[in-house]
Each structure stands twice: as C-alpha cells, then as structure tokens.
Amino acid sequence: MNSSVGSEIVTGFIEEVEGYLPDMSRCLQTLQQDRAHRPSLAELHRITHTIKGAAAMVGLDDLSGIGEVLEKVMENILGASLALDDETITLLGNATQRIDSYCMMQRAGKPDEGQLFQQTIAEIEEKLCKSTVESCDIEGSSENCNPETILFEEREESIEEEPSITEASPDALDNDLGLAEGFSEEDTDDFFSDAGSLFDETSSPVSPVSPVEEAIDDDLLFQDVAEEEDDLFGSAVMEPSEISEEVPGFGGIEQTGQTDQDNTGAEDIDPELLECFREETEEHLENIDSCLNSFGIDITDSVELTPSTKETLHSLRRSVHTLKGAAAVIGIEQVAAWGHDFEDFLDWLHDEARRLDPPTVAALRDGADLLASLAEEPTSPTEQRKQRIIAQFEGITELFPQTLRERAVRMR
C-alpha cells in the first residue's frame, strides 16, 4: 500500500469513529435515566469492540487500546461484575470525550503518543480494582487480579494475532483493499463502519455462548437499515452492469454478456488475505446455517415477525453483511455482488415484511447456499441460479424492484 492510500484509509476510519461518538453520547444519556436499558449497553459494547478491532487493523494502536479497555468495562457491566453507577457513567463519558480529542489530534497531525491510552488505563484500573477486590482476596494473588496486567497481556496477544494493514505487503494491498474495479476507496473505508473488521464476532442462536455474549446478542435487535444505509458495507456499491435504466428485476442485473469467469478469482488474491477471508467465511456460514435451521424448526406456517425472530434475522443479516464487505475489500467481486443482493432481500424483510413463512425461509436457504458456493469458488458459473433465486425474491415481494430503482437513481 502506498502512503497516500494508507493516509486516506486512516482518515476515513477517523471519520467513522467520529460518527460513533454521538451514538455513544446518546447511549450514555439513556443510561443516565435508565440504568437497566440493556440495548444501550449492548450498543456501547458493539461500538467499543469495533473501535478496538478496526483501529488495530489500520495501525492506530493507542485508539485500539482505548477501545479494548472500554470494551472490558462494558463486558464487566453486562456480566454484572461491575455496577453501572454514576462514577462508571462519568468514566465512560470522559473516555468518549478523550476519543473525540484523539480524533482531532489525528486530523491535526499531532498523534496522542500514548498519553490518552495511559490515562484511560489508570482510571479503568482503579474502577475495576474496586469491583474485583473480593475476588482478588479469594485468589490470594494481587498480580493475577491486576486489571492493568490482564489488559496489557490481552492487548499484546491481540496485536500479535492481528497484523496492521499498514504493515502488510504494498503490492498485495494496493490490489486487494477495496481498490479492485467496481469498489472505491470510500467503500474500503465503509468496511470499518459496521462489523469493524474482517474479524467480526458472530453468535449462533442455537449454540452455547457465554453469559456476556448471550446478553449482548439478546439486545442486538435488527437495526433500522434506512437510518444506517450510508454506513453499510455495500450500500453504495453496485457495478454499472448491475444497474440498468429499466431495473428489470430484483437484483437490478442486466444481461450484458459478461460471464462469471470474467470476475476476480481466488488465485488473484493475496494468499494471506484470502486465508483470513476463508477462515471468517467458515464461521459466518456456520452462523447463517444455524439461523436458517432455527427458522426451519420454528417457522412451520405464516407467522408474525416477533422480537425473537428479528434477533435471528439480525444475526443472519450481520453475517451476510460482513461476508459481503470482506469480499469487497479484498476484491472477490462475485461474493460481494451476490451478498449485496441477498442483503437487500434481508433489508426488505426488516423494512416491509410483517410475517415470515416457509417459502420465505426456503428462499433464504437458497440465497445462503449460493453465497456459500461463491465463497468456495468465486468463478463458478452461477448466473442461472442467481436469476432463479432473484425470481423467488420477486415472488415474495413485488415492491422491491422499485426500491432498487430508487437506490440506483441516488447513485447517479
């Protein structure tokens, strides 16, 4: 990656972080009034987790460290080992202001050089020590219970496991980080907005999870796509060949004679990035399969969408969304394009649908199977399957082509 591209990616990420700050402040204001408002707690956990992972990937270790210690606070609150008292809310509010200051310093070309991270660590160490003094006495080892020691050990492990984007191969990343034909540098920046990184965590609705993860996932309802559309991986990513003037079908795909074999194949991708993508693909496809299995058991007739159903939809859509964005970033266009169409249908289920029935579940299963096939072999011929599944989507809703038409007009 050349220096100009690296600078643009970091600048774009800083802009994304600044976009999180109003949401963090809003959540804290809500929690000031209602300490039991778990959706706000879950949202704060999601944001801090995103900042931690994505900042590490772009080489902003100080900001990643801030995200990590704040994530630790949120995990302790959600796990009921740390009280959400006035002192904790003040600590979180001050940390939010420091992140804002950090972003302004980055924009001004005056990096923090670690002071902000150290100050946040000191405050969190004091707070966590107060909440863990009893367990420390039981263990009999103050060193093992020292939050600073634990946090630094975890942070060192995460830094070793997640190499910085700015340290990767220049030639490989120039080709792979969202700069392939059809994906702009803006789209690369969007990669960090929702899932935060290629290493987004997934949770299965039917698999055993820790109490903290379960509490988080129970509160992460399907978010309003209309409000978030500008921040989605591929909300503004469509190939010119995918949008015709007439927008003839669900996917907005016009037959242009281009074959699947014309698209980027696995052999064209940097091996290390491809290996990361395949590892994450396996996890997300397993989560998608678990969600669909849950629907298969529960949806035996037409039923109204319930909060529980929307939670499963959210988990399903989150995995599709992450796979789409990861594929776009490293240049696997076939996966990104189908992930875009598949996610559009999931968006419609949230925005317009009121009920869920077995035919819709079957269409979701077909869409997921195609996504899995493309992830395994991006250049496999799938055009007929795409059109058949798109026809299924159109059969479920006749209004969706208009939605795509409006999206296409906005892009011009």
UniProtKB/TrEMBL annotation:
InterPro entries: Bact_Chemotaxis_CheA, HPT_dom_sf, Sig_transdc_His_kin_Hpt_dom. Keywords: Phosphoprotein. GO terms for molecular function: protein kinase activity. The keyword Cell wall biogenesis/degradation does not apply. GO terms for biological process: phosphorelay signal transduction system. Pfam families: Hpt. This is Hpt domain-containing protein. It comes from Candidatus Electrothrix aarhusensis. The lineage of its organism: Bacteria, Pseudomonadati, Thermodesulfobacteriota, Desulfobulbia, Desulfobulbales.
